[in-house]
Prior knowledge:
The chain has 254 residues and is α/β, with parallel strands linked by helices. Helix content is 34%, strand content 27%. It contains ten helices and 13 strands. Strand 8 and strand 9 (150-155) form a beta hairpin.
Amino acid sequence: MKTVKIMPCLDMKNGRVVKGIHFVDLRDAGDPVENAAYYQKEGADELAMLDIAATVENRKTRLEWVKQVSSVISIPLTVGGGINTTDDIELVLGAGADRVSMNSAAVRNPALVKEAADRFGSGKIVIAVDARRNAVMPSGFELVVAGGTTPVGKDAVEWAKRCQELGAGMILPTSMDGDGTLKGYDLEFTKAISGAVTLPVIASGGAGTLEHFYEGVVRGGADILLAASVFHFRTFTVRQVKEYLKGKGIAVNL
């Protein structure tokens, strides 16, 4: 039985953790360093930090945020947002990240995935696959980029499979239809991805109840459960989620 991991996510803007619905109507959710230290203490297995405005503002990830957060935790840190080249990856890893997450740049230049995996190792490369429902696509899900703002006319599940072939080590699917809604992971999308690749899959977007986490594993096939709002606004602690999953027969690190 696989051990499922819990991954709080720090969505960053202007040096603060923020959280919105469908990536808009952002609310302040505190200081990133304080949040990171708190989540590690609470038993988080991993942490994600996404610079949500980097691509839209056409700039690089803020390395000082990476340095500050990585300095207070020992759990793996995945950083995304504005990473466009292997040199960017080197800088982010050098600032203390354990993995980088790429989306828009990888879609624009798929060769970057292979180049990054060859240079840094597959285990360092996460591909974020953002999608919206579109019945025209074979899987029913269309790939979107630029923080969920721009559809690109590609099938999201086919893209995930291609990224595995190119050497990515992990897939992070997010349904733009569900992000921040607290209505649960998009299980259909998560399952479509987890059924198409053999890589670890991070369920993301919409967790709002303890049952949603359970469904992410059992119905979505996820290996890692990412959540933001429920942790930032202290609806649940990481420990509560883990204890609930354990009670349901899911293997977790307590």
